[in-house]
Design brief:
The chain is of the alpha+beta class and about 300 residues long. It has 3 domains: about 80 residues, Orthogonal Bundle (Arc Repressor Mutant, subunit A), CATH 1.10.10; about 100 residues, 3-Layer(aba) Sandwich (D-Maltodextrin-Binding Protein, domain 2); about 110 residues, D-Maltodextrin-Binding Protein, domain 2 (3-Layer(aba) Sandwich). It has 10 helices and 14 strands.
Length: about 300
Amino acid sequence: MDHIESLRVFRSVVEAKSFTRAADILGTSVPAVSRAISGLETRLGSRLLHRTTRQISMTETAERFYAGCCRILDDLEVLEAEASMQTLQPGGVLRLVAHTTATMLRLVPLISTFKRKYSKVDLDVTLTERPVDLVADGYDLGIVVPFMLSTETVVTRLLERVPLIIVATPEYLKRRSLPQHPSELTKHTFVAVSPCVRKPELTFRLDEGGLTVPLTYHIASNNPMFNREMVLEGFGIGAVSAALVQDELSSGRLVRILHDFEIVDGAVEIRLAYNSRTLLPAKVRAFVEHAAAFFDETADTPQAGC
């Protein structure tokens, strides 16, 4: 393995935090990755990585070496791109992860229009609602809500803000009375978003200042569709995407409450996330540009949210 390739292996191991994940990302074997790191350490005459059965960590030498390594590899990518027309033509496999519910109505038309435009790009799409590490998990891009990003070493671009509204069933409100002011929510039960995703509280902007209301709940989940169904079953009030309950509001199965009061940060941001590199691969750059244009064009179309 040549020196430049060993630098690429070292960078992948550091970013993936695992020999095994680095091997998967590079399409090689774990022994080959291990040999590359050992060869690099021999060449430098210094240990780069502390290895245990569960994790790896960088030595002080490696921390300095990693920064320089990234600069060299990024510069090399720029030179290769300028010398090769192939990088101007999007192609290969684009690995995309997306929030299942937040992208429910957008993802199929987004992917289909992209695929028709860039026929040489194949797509491997994963839908999830858990936190992800784009580099470690081997994704090129993510269409995510903020809590999903487990690392800050990515570039994000806002695609859409999904507004939240407060709703309940008429039957629930007959039992518990209709709140007239946000302060009255303390007397009510909610179907909440899991605390690991969002803090169980709502903050309202009032003339006299902000009011934060802690939410009492007995059911919580990370899935907005599940929460909507639990609200429909009468288990409590829900703060949900307006688009997710349009039919229920129209039919009278749900009632919107406290609509005259503004919720602080009352929208969930849907963001496009990708690795921060000097030069993006053509397939990634093409998707970033396509997604931005797509969401601009569909900004006024209702969307399901989180």
